[in-house]
Amino acid sequence: MIVRKEKNIELLSFPLFSTFKEIENFVTTRNGITEGDNYSAFNLSPYCGDNPARVKKNREQLASVLNITPDRLITPFQTHGNRIFCLDSNFFLLNPENKEKQLLGIDSLITSCPRTAIAVSTADCVPVLLFDPANKVIAAIHAGWRGTVSHIVSKTIEEMKIRYNTTTENLFAAIGPSIGPEYFEVGDEVFEAFRNAGYKMECITGKRIGNKKYHIDLWGANTEELLTAGLSPDHIDVSGLCTYSHNDKFFSARKLGISSGRILTGIMLNRS
Question: Considering the domain boundaries, does residue 36 fall inside one?
Fold first, then answer.
């Protein structure tokens, strides 16, 4: 991934998406660590137990780097489901309380609004970004294992087809830093959930040795989902960065515990 630092904030971006001038894409990092502080130093989620004032400051800093106002940095309250919200200009007419209600229980955002950064917060789950350059539409998806099993990525693509006339031949995707197959160990019930969802288990699971649990490749599962939806392989950018093994750079709930920070993976249209 491409690394850049602006205003003392380290951001990553996807090489494939960075070829498009119409969009900005970003992945935040921990941006430094304070010993004993699992939220250090750049947690951007207000929903994980961090000091609200610190989160607010961090979000203001990120908005400044993106050259937008903080109210244009949109992150939903995710619940590991498959609900999708299509954000339009009417959203910005709502008061803060009603905006929050609209984003409650949402795990996928779609918009064609320019200068609006949509992002999902993660700490091991898979973030997926979509860009339709023909219709100037973007999406940010939180694909944890439950979301992956419920096919949230393909459902988002279907919604883009219906609402924005997206065609998969013109669609581009990026899969961000998340837990890698080496460390995503699961029980039989999760293995069965993936198999029942129709995934090619021989392609996305490691072999079980002795009493060890299965290992599932969430990157592979979501890549399979994108290919099945009709995307071209060269339209998919997989970061391949594991949040668990790189918990000095990214937050990892499996490594640090649930009471820890979250990174943001996001995308923004520069103009309509």
Answer: yes
